């Protein structure tokens, strides 16, 4: 385990330390002065069965002792930098795993097999009582985990769309199209256990005409049966097809009440255990999902 302290550096030194960037690879974000960077030694992963995790090729990396304490005690706004590779363009990891129904933010591969990095805030992680377990699958290869512990005075970064008193829903991370992938099981439980409230999706200011947004699924017991979104009415319907389009007339938000979600997918004893999000179906539209929250 290695530690580094970020001090005030000149622009030239910062560029040398973090890289000059390129049109294809933007310059890496510079952590605040006083940030302590800890590079963790990766624990030996334990293989886990698909029956226990719901995912193929599951490997569990359990961080304990000083590593776990450093993550647990890091102030809000601190984050983990996860480095990994995967040749698939869908979910390949869960940042914090306690059970098949309780796991942290989802990371996705970009489909290239090249090394990629994601930034996961410590306040969004799912921690065990004495460990932080990182679940990789599908398959993928974990390359590194570093903690960027920012000074307590810095605090968490606030999204401009966030509403006071609302619950943050973490966007899927790592896909080449921002906001495309599955919600974490921990965030999904925030929706299914709420007795009321409204789920709000915020989009950017670009003009979108046929940008898909989401579908609910899969139906419990049938991984290929989803609850889609009617393109015509925006209502939740049972079936594999249906991504609700977002266009410029929708004021850049789409909402569903908790009651509406539960009524639509819970009828006749049916249930759902997943929420999938897409910016579009082909990957060539301009829509970008900025933020999701559950308003009380």
Report what the structure shows.
The chain is mainly beta and 296 residues long. 12% of the residues lie in helices and 32% in strands. The longest helix has 9 residues, at 65-73. It has helices at residues 11-18, 50-53, 65-73, 185-192, 258-265, and strands at residues 2-5, 36-39, 46-48, 58-63, 79-85, 91-95, 97-99, 102-103, 106-108, 116-121, 132-136, 141-149, 167-169, 181-182, 198-203, 211-212, 214-216, 227-229, 236-238, 245-246, 253-257, 275-277, 289-295. Residues 10-17 have low confidence and may be disordered.
Distance between the termini: 42 Å
State which percent range the strand residues make up.
25-35%
What share of residues is helical? 10-25%
Number of domains: 2
- Overall, the morphology is globular
Describe the sheet with the most strands: 5 strands, antiparallel
Cross-sheet strand order for the largest sheet: 1-2-12-5-10
| Secondary structure tally: strands | 23
Spans where pLDDT lies below 50 across 5 or more residues: 10-17
Number of helices: 5
Radius of gyration: 20 Å
CATH class of the largest domain: Mainly Beta
Structural class: mainly beta
SSE pattern, N- to C-terminal: EHEEHEHEEEEEEEEEEHEEEEEEEHEE
Mean of residue pLDDT values: 81
Looking at the structure, the CATH topology of the largest domain is Jelly Rolls
Q: What's the architecture of the largest domain, going by CATH?
A: Sandwich
């Amino acid at each position: 385990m290695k530690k580094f302290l970020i001090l005030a550096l000149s622009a030239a030194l910062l560029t040398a330390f973090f890289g000059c960037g390129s049109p294809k690879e933007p310059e890496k974000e510079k952590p605040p002065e006083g940030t302590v960077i800890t590079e963790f030694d990766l624990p030996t992963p334990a293989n886990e069965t698909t029956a226990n995790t719901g995912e193929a090729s599951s490997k569990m990396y359990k961080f304990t002792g000083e590593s776990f304490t450093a993550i647990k005690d890091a102030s809000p706004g601190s984050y983990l930098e996860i480095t990994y590779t995967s040749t698939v363009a869908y979910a390949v990891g869960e940042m914090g795993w306690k059970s098949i129904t309780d796991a942290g933010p989802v990371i996705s591969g970009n489909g290239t097999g090249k090394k990629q990095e994601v930034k996961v805030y410590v306040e969004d992680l799912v921690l065990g009582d004495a460990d932080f377990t990182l679940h990789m699958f599908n398959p993928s290869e974990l390359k590194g985990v570093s903690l960027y512990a920012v000074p307590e005075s810095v605090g968490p970064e606030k999204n401009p769309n966030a509403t006071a008193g609302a619950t943050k829903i973490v966007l899927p991370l790592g896909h080449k199209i921002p906001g495309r992938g599955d919600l974490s099981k921990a965030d999904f439980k925030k929706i299914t256990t709420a007795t009321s409230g409204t789920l709000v999706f915020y989009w950017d200011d670009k003009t979108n005409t046929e940008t898909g947004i989401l579908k609910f699924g899969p139906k419990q017991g049938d991984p290929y049966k989803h609850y889609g979104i009617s393109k015509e009415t925006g209502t939740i319907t049972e079936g594999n097809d249906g991504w609700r389009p977002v266009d410029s007339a929708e004021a850049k938000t789409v909402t569903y009440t908790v009651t509406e979600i539960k009524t639509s997918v819970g009828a006749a004893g049916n249930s759902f255990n997943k929420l999938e999000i897409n910016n579009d179906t082909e990957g060539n539209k301009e829509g970008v999902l900025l933020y999701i929250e559950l308003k009380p």
